[in-house]
Amino acid sequence: MYKVISLLFSIFIFFVAQAQKVNPEEKVVLKTISMTDSTKKVSAVQDTIKKETRRERKRREKAEEEAKTPKIFKDSTRLAIEAKTVTAWKRSLILPGWGQYTNKGLWWIKIPIIYGGFVSTALVFDFNNRYYKELIAELDYRYKNNNAVNNPAYAGAQTQGLISAKDYARRNRDLMVLLTVGLYGLNVAEAYVDSMIKNRWSISSEKLAFTIRPTVLQGPSTSFAYHAVPNIGLKLSMKIK
Questions:
Q1: How far is CA 175 from the centre of its chain?
Q2: CB–CB of 114/187 below 8 Å?
Q3: Widest Cα–Cα separation across the chain
Q4: Contact of 102 with 191, CB cutoff 8 Å
Q5: 116 or 227, greater pLDDT
């Protein structure tokens, strides 16, 4: 019995030893497979750490900012009001006075004022520009002809006086250009503010109240009196409910 058990144990150990043996070719295959897997892993890591372009970085940062900022959903009424407000100043930007006509109200007073300002600046610009050119021509003639007079209108004027008048005319001419640009910008700003007040801000007579009543004001002291002389005036009070 003891011999049979020893024989069976020996056979078991033999088969276990055979099972643990690996063919050298199989080792090479396993090594090749493992090297291939490591190469794939390295290439995958290289792909993940690929340097992003500037456009991709900006796109990623924009997506992150949009994810952090809560979305505000506006109803159709508010969108229509905002579109109307934008329309007014854009129209004034294209054609002065168009935004004022869009806002209605006192457009029939505002538009003549706007174009009256443009006409005034244009006329003043033209006058100073012609005056400037006349003075330049006179000074140029005097310089080339030993201080001789060309235009009889400037016969009694000194050369230094003509130079000062020329600079004055040039400054006024350039000032009209700045005033024209300022008037154009004021036209756009007025259209925007007027549309904001009418469409977004609710200021009615029920919420705004004015009160005017007589009052006594303390005036400044005079040389004939030691105390201040009281004056009668009106007091205006405004109350927003």
A1: 26
A2: yes
A3: 154
A4: yes
A5: 116
The two structure tokens encoding residue 169: 């005319």
Residue corresponding to tokens 């005056």 = 131
- 194 closest CA partner among 81, 83, 89: 89
Average pLDDT over residues 142-157: 89
Q: What is the pLDDT of residue 91?
A: 94
How many residues can be counted in the chain? Answer: 241
> For residue 104, is it left (φ>0), alpha (ψ between -120 and 50) or beta?
left
Question: Tokens for 42?
Answer: 């390295």
Task: State the average pLDDT over residues 61-66.
Answer: 84
Q: Which of 79, 80, 119 has the alpha carbon at shortest distance from 97?
A: 119
